[in-house]
Design goal:
Elements (H helix, E strand, L loop, with lengths): L3 E5 L6 E5 L6 E3 L2 H7 L4 E7 L4 E3 L2 E7 L5 E7 L5 E6 L5 E5 L13 E3 L18
Parallel strand pairs: 3-10
Antiparallel strand pairs: 1-2, 2-5, 3-4, 4-9, 6-7, 7-8, 8-9
Length: 131
């Protein structure tokens, strides 16, 4: 049986739990992730939406992604910690920010997405293809 993944925000008011799905963990370099995290990329862990639960002062911000469809960024309404991302396209999953995991050592990125959007000062973080 899969082990639940737990995490939360910096101030401790928001907590979540979900089960990891069989999809790659990844590093996203899109401009939205850069602006939302204040860094050159975001580290994402896919969780099954039907196993995901969250409690506390959690808010979401809706925006249009590169596809023109809605994407949602979830964060703590108290401290502002980024916690989740999800899209209309991937209704079966929600992505947790690896930095919000209780045990960040469980995160092992397998690939980069939107690597062409990585700023020059963040090029070293792009995961090169294994092909």
């Amino acid at each position: 049986m899969p082990k639940p993944v737990n995490g939360g925000c910096k101030c401790g008011q928001v907590r979540y739990e979900g089960v990891r799905i069989d999809a790659p963990m990844f590093r996203c370099h899109c401009r939205d992730c850069q602006q939302l995290t204040g860094s050159g990329h975001a580290e994402m862990v896919p969780l099954a939406r039907d196993t995901f639960s969250i409690s506390g002062p959690y808010k979401t911000y809706e925006m249009k992604g590169g596809s023109g469809r809605s994407t949602f960024s979830g964060f703590c309404a108290n401290c502002g910690s980024q916690l989740t991302r999800n899209t209309e396209r991937s209704g079966d999953r929600i992505y947790a920010h690896a930095s919000s995991l209780d045990d960040p050592a469980t995160y092992a990125p397998e690939r980069s997405i939107y690597a062409d959007d990585a700023p020059l000062w963040d090029q070293a973080s792009v995961i090169k293809s294994q092909s």
